[in-house]
Amino acid sequence: MNATGGRILDGVRVVDLSTFVTGGFCSLMLANQGADVVKVERPGTGDDIRQSGPPFVDGESPYYWTLNYDKRSVELDLKTDAGREALVDLVAEADVFVQNFRPGVADRLGVDYDTLAEENPGLVYCSISAYGDSGPWSQRPGYDLLVQGMSGIMSVTGEPDPDGRPVKVGLPQTDLITGMWAAFGVVNALLKRERTGEGDRVELGMLDATLPWLTKQAGKVFAGEEPSRMGTKDPVLAPYQTVETEDGHLNVACLNQRQWRRFCEAIDRPDLAEDERFATNADRVEQMTELEAEIEEALSARPTDEWMEILVDAGVPAGPVQSVEEALYNEQTDARGVVGEVSDDDGERTIPTIEHPLNFRHAESGFRSPPPKLGEHTREVFAELGYSADRLDELAAAGAFGDPTE
Fold it and tell me: Rounded to an integer, what distance in angstroms lies between the CA atom of residue 284 and that of residue 252?
């Protein structure tokens, strides 16, 4: 680990064998802070997320872009002896190794922690799976949809229609949660290594990673209550929900009595603040249906933009319900530089980016290069390890980088 004034993880090399989102988002977070992420992919096809679409832009999946900025791609066939040997050489010079195989697969491939740590005792090894490497579910396949269901998220998402189907969050939430935990674990292990000189294994499952995010819903269970679907309403705060306006929808969040009274004054309903039904937050939570009817009757008189001006001026937390495009492109994201672009060295390929949110006073962060083409850096990466041109040709002929006849 050798941060030298630029980005915090400058000098850290990450070898990422993962596919799709969990490991990909983990290594993306590390790349954003300066880590050199080498993405090891199956020859010919690469990470399955490359084929996730439509849409495709010039044959590439924009979904793949969003998880792979600032990485380098090498192709290795781990079913060949030459491919496995090349991987071991690569990991021997790395700081971090990430994989999201089902438990047992890494052992069969010879890329388990004990094997790689023999070559590199300081290695931080991160293994991600659906349910962790122990327990009766450990061998089950698992994806975001399944974990959203099994974690309880879908039981509390959607409108409170008793006949309605459970609804998943509209983004791969448990994948992203897991990736964030994994990156957090890796950085902690790197810090520990700085102090002790010892590497470590970071192991986590998607289900385990998701459960701590239940917070208030778990709190209800701990209190002997059963959380349920509430639409946009909140189980412990009111009003804290989406309400209809004359031309759309608006989110309103009153977290204390002061904000509640300001809200009542702003919508020209000061009587609600004196109404015994809504006297305290607990009362309002108990009377959510009646409260919603009163609020929506008032807000239906004006369009969303007008209410936003009124509520912001009154110091009431409120926000419009925006489309994804509106969320990406607006005066706030423009001022913060959230959405940008990165280009190839030759400028032939320019890719949009969503910048990560960490800003440091004394260090840089941010993406600098587009997601790699499949195998774009294979020879470059191994040349950096000291492989000669002849040795690279030998490996290619032995099938390390894929079928040499293709």
Answer: 14
User: Do both 149 and 291 map to the same domain?
Assistant: no
Q: 349 and 311 in one domain?
A: no
The encoded tokens of residue 278 equal 């809504």
DSSP code, position 227: -
Query: Residue 63 domain-assigned?
Result: yes
Q: What is the pTM of this model?
A: 0.93
Domain that holds residue 343: 13-213+334-397
- Catalytic residue check, 346: no
SS3 282: helix
Q: Mean pLDDT for each consecutive 10-residue tract of the chain (406 residues)?
A: 70 97 98 98 96 95 97 96 96 97 95 96 98 96 96 95 90 98 98 97 98 95 94 94 95 96 97 96 96 95 96 96 96 96 88 95 94 96 96 94 84
Rounded CA-CA distance 65/333 in Å is 19
CA–CA gap between residue 133 and residue 8 (Å, rounded)? 31
Check which CATH number belongs to the domain holding 277 and give it. Answer: 3.30.1540.10
Q: What is the pLDDT of residue 5?
A: 61
CB neighbour class for 140 (10 Å; exposed up to 12, middle 13-18, buried from 19): middle
Domain count, the chain: 2
Asked whether the beta carbons of 43 and 402 are under 8 A apart, the reply is: yes
Q: Which of 16, 77, 175, 208 is catalytic?
A: 175
